[in-house]
Amino acid sequence: MISETIQVQRIRDGQPATVPILVAYDPARGTLAIFQDQRKRDQSFADKAYYRLEEFTVDRGRAFWLHRQQADIEADPSAVDRYAVHLGDKWDECDCKGKYASERRAANCKHVDCLKRLLAQGHLKRREMFGGVGA
After folding, report:
1. How many angstroms separate the Cα of 66 from the Cα of each of 18, 24, 46, 93, 110?
2. DSSP category for residue 125
3. Residues with Cβ < 8 Å from 29, sequence gap 6 or more?
4. What is the pLDDT of residues 20-46, one digit of tens each?
5. What ranges do the domains of the chain cover?
6. Which residues pair with 26 in a beta bridge?
């Protein structure tokens, strides 16, 4: 299990802010957990998201499906069951609603931020991707 807290740019109360996100990645199972919005009172996280990663082939860069867990889908049936994230040579994309909102503020969504960090640290090796296509 790989676990790391990263600092990311977000808008809080209408102002730019640097906030922590805890990323937990299990390469053996191909699972990713993202924790954000840490509470000051008890240091727990208000927002917890769990995914199964699946890499798919693109012409340039790397691309991943982030499959949401069934319990998360049942808790929020209006959301999609998976997100597509593309980490490209010149820009990054995600089809989540957070990415669309963050584009207006020149920031990334949590999915892009976390996958970029794991990739930069060498943790997302193609042949180790659970359910992925490999290279």
Report:
1. 24, 14, 20, 13, 12
2. -
3. 52, 130
4. 999 999 999 999 999 988 888 998 888
5. 2-128
6. 31
